[in-house]
Design brief:
Strand content: 15-25%
GO molecular function, one term: ribonuclease T2 activity
Helix content: 25-40%
CATH class: Alpha Beta
Distance between the termini: 55 Å
Keywords: Signal
Largest sheet: 4 strands, antiparallel
Structural class: alpha+beta
Number of helices: 9
Number of strands: 8
CATH architecture: Alpha-Beta Complex
Pfam family, one: Ribonuclease_T2
GO biological process, one term: RNA catabolic process
Radius of gyration: 19 Å
Family: Belongs to the RNase T2 family.
Order of helices and strands: HEHEEHHHEHHHEHEEE
CATH topology: Ribonuclease Rh, Chain A
Length: 244
């Protein structure tokens, strides 16, 4: 009987989906935080001729990437935040090989990442933002997917879903974020918008700053990274249209 119970437990454990491993840079790890970049796909793809929502999408809030911030070693050499955002890993000697991904992670990415007709977003994100830090491709994307899912499952994710097709005040969006992740999280959020042909301020993406030392604790309030000047990096001015 005990042998049968042990066999059942082994089957159950091995059949569970793989959990995202802890993410830890093995080189160039002198950076303070990550940016979890999420596309609001109805807006992101509507305003781009080269973008399509993935087939069998599992949510309007798609994954764009998980971006380490400017390493201190480069900052000391005079590299600016703006330059880092443009070049990132190209400041270092690095490989341009595609990430090695499990079938499970590939399938989840296929449902979460917008499809760019002129670029492989998954490979380009890994080459630009991940491989120079020594992350294994599977660990990096599994963690990014886990973080995105935490946002989708939060009350903030529900708020965005419920506001599809509505015009909202950006302060209300930020309030929904702090209600979901804690009062101290307010400055961790940046909202990105573009104007459509009707001159509406269309939500295209949002960025969440997460402490590099506490990324594995997200969505705990203490894991959010506090930016200087709440909303200083927003590009949404005035009421925001959340398309569906």
């Amino acid at each position: 009987m005990f042998a049968r119970i042990r066999l059942v437990l082994i089957i159950l454990i091995t059949s569970l989906p793989a959990m995202a491993s802890n993410l830890q840079a093995s080189r160039n790890g002198d950076f303070s935080h990550y940016t979890l970049a999420l596309a609001w796909q109805p807006g992101f793809c509507k305003l781009s001729q080269s973008c399509q929502m993935p087939l069998n999408s599992d949510g309007a809030l798609g994954l764009l990437g998980l971006w380490p911030s400017l390493p201190a070693s480069l900052r000391e050499q005079g590299v600016t935040e703006e330059s880092w955002r443009v070049k990132s890993c190209f400041y270092f000697s690095h490989s341009i090989d595609d990430p090695q991904l499990s079938d499970e992670v590939q399938a989840r990415l296929a449902r979460a990442v917008p499809k760019l007709l002129d670029d492989d977003l998954i490979s380009s994100e890994f080459v630009k933002h991940a491989q120079c830090f020594g992350f294994a491709g599977n660990d990096y994307f599994a963690k990014a997917l886990q973080l995105r899912q935490s946002v989708l499952d939060s009350s903030f994710g529900s708020y965005l879903k419920n506001k599809q097709g509505s015009m909202v005040d950006p302060n209300t969006v930020r309030q929904a974020f702090t209600q979901a992740f804690g009062a101290a999280s307010g400055t961790a959020l940046s909202l990105r918008c573009l104007r459509d042909t009707q001159q509406r301020n269309v939500l295209t993406s949002l960025e969440i700053q997460i402490s590099a030392q506490k990324v594995n604790a997200f969505p705990a309030e203490a894991s959010l990274w506090q930016q200087e000047g709440a909303g200083a990096s927003d590009s949404c001015y005035g009421p925001i249209w959340i398309p569906n």
